[in-house]
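Human: I would love a firmer grasp of how sequence relates to backbone shape in proteins. Take your time, and here it is.
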Amino acid sequence: MSSIAAAPPSKIIEHIVLFKVKPDADPSAVGAMVSNLNSLISLDSVLYISAGPVSRCRSGSNLTFTHMLHSRYKSESDLVAYAQHPTHVNVVANYGKPIVDDLMAVDWIAEDFTGSPVVTPGSILRLTVLKLKEEAADTGKSEVLRVVRGIRDKFPSIEQLTAGENFSPGRAKGFSICSIAVFKGGKEMEALDSEEELVTEQKNKVREFLDSVLVLDYTVAPIATASASL
């Protein structure tokens, strides 16, 4: 795992993998997958990693996922080093593939990043991934990114928010705009959800450009940052 200097990076790479575990998978095998994914924090290129079950999955399509991995890197080359590392390859081959029915992955650059790359255990993440209509073109994409990046200013219960355009389309199932909102806990996320009128207002600003939306909530377990250092 990389040691982060006193000043946090101003840019990080967000990496998300969503898993749909087979319904008949042995619980011990699922636990082993999660445990081994979390153990990848030991790799030098990894700033932060957390894997575990999704608490809520909402989709405008037939996509459903049961587990999520979230990790962060200083650069795209560090992400590549992680992906190609023999330990990572072994975990995927021996603990992931045998029990996973489907997966989806997205990566984006979080510009003007503030705060720690390490998410505090007990925090709740809300991942939102958007698929744009073909006719949305660059104008629609720019407007969607503008609105998504401005959400934190409108909802003070969001502790940290990153957003960007996916740069790894191969496993993204056509989704291209991604964001993660970090909440200190359930109370803070409920505060956002209670602002129904303001939430609807933000959705209406981008609705005309969207083909599909996928939203997942995930609670960060303590094991995710057990060996992290800043």
Notes: Residues 224-230 have pLDDT under 50 and may be disordered. The radius of gyration is 17 Å.
